[in-house]
Write a structure and sequence with these properties.
Helices cover about 45% and strands about 15% of the residues. It is an alpha/beta fold. The chain has one domain: Rossmann fold, CATH 3.40.50.720. It has an eight-stranded mixed β-sheet, with helices on both faces. A two-stranded parallel ribbon has the order 7-8. The longest helix has 26 residues. It is globular.
Length: about 300
């Protein structure tokens, strides 16, 4: 059976936090709002956040949805956002670590001095999850869904140069950030089980989808951006690309420590199924080392 948004169980009474105001994040927000969840769309740009909330309200007039500002490229902003949430609510049932930066042509840094992709796509979400752990532990059947990518297949953890200071290759840095997210999702599940945190950690990837990721980072007139514009038919719609995330977030059949992606054309498009895990993501020792390094870099600890 092809799993669709119509298969999402009722989400009434659940609070979902989604990073990212457009593309996949917006599709996640729309689907979860339709299913009855209260949704917080978290992102850097207030205008894009307001536009996302307006779009959700247009399609789901009764939706409980709001925007909260957070810049994943700033650990201070992540901490502030989490502190605001702790003052606003006593639990979070679902966290979707979705927002991403993809392949800026030149090396850029976060406000904390991290390479932009590693800092935003991975370390920002690592810190956010740690800060929200107390609220997630109070959630009902709480889940954390972390977005990876088909690019994780080529990713390598370069612990001698995590911030690409010795040499920056855009796609290499992106692949590392997405492999890191996958290693994190699996290690979070192992630690949640070991420490009885009562949360489930699952990973997902969207295949190749029509979002603004390629337009926003390398640029609309880069080779990748032009391909995204002119070869649009090779990219599945964002709503289709969001299905693996939504499956991981809501399906009773989604397994803790699982990884889900599309089922067709080398996992680039289609409906959600268990995804093939890259061999480098199965190394527990690498995952533990990455966790330790991440705690040192972010000055944030779990539990």
């Amino acid at each position: 059976m092809n799993w669709k948004t119509s298969n999402i169980p009722s989400q009434h009474g659940r609070l979902a936090v989604i990073t990212g105001t457009g593309g996949l994040g917006l599709e996640d927000a729309l689907a979860l709002a339709r299913a009855g969840a209260e949704v917080i769309i978290a992102g850097r740009n207030p205008q894009k956040g307001a536009d996302a909330v307006t779009r959700v309200h247009a399609e789901v007039p009764t939706a409980g949805v709001r925007f909260e500002q957070v810049d994943l490229a700033s650990l201070a902003s992540v901490a502030d956002f989490a502190a605001r949430l702790r003052n606003q609510t006593d639990k979070v049932d679902l966290l979707i670590n979705n927002a991403a930066v993809m392949t800026p042509p030149k090396r850029e840094q976060t406000s904390d001095g991290f390479e932009l992709q590693f800092g935003t796509n991975y370390l920002g979400h690592f810190a956010l999850t740690a800060h929200l752990l107390p609220l997630l532990r109070k959630g009902v059947n709480a889940r954390v869904v972390t977005l990876s990518s088909v690019a994780a297949r080529e990713g390598m953890m370069d612990f001698d140069d995590l911030q690409s200071q010795r040499g920056y290759a855009p796609m290499k840095a992106y692949g590392q950030s997405k492999l890191a997210g996958l290693l994190f999702a699996f290690e979070l599940q192992r630690r949640a089980e070991a420490h009885h945190w009562g949360i489930t950690s699952i990973a997902a990837h969207p295949g190749i989808s029509r979002t603004d990721l390629l337009h926003n980072a390398p640029g609309r007139w880069s080779a990748a951006g032009i391909a995204r514009s002119l070869l649009w038919f090779l990219f599945q719609p964002a709503a289709q690309g969001a299905l693996p995330t939504l499956y991981a977030a809501t399906s009773p059949d989604a397994k803790g420590g699982g990884y889900y992606g599309p089922d067709k054309l080398g996992e680039t498009r289609g409906f959600p199924v268990p995804a093939k895990v890259p061999p480098r993501a199965t190394d527990d020792a690498t995952a533990r080392r990455l966790w330790h390094e991440s705690e040192q870099l972010t000055h944030v600890a779990f539990g």
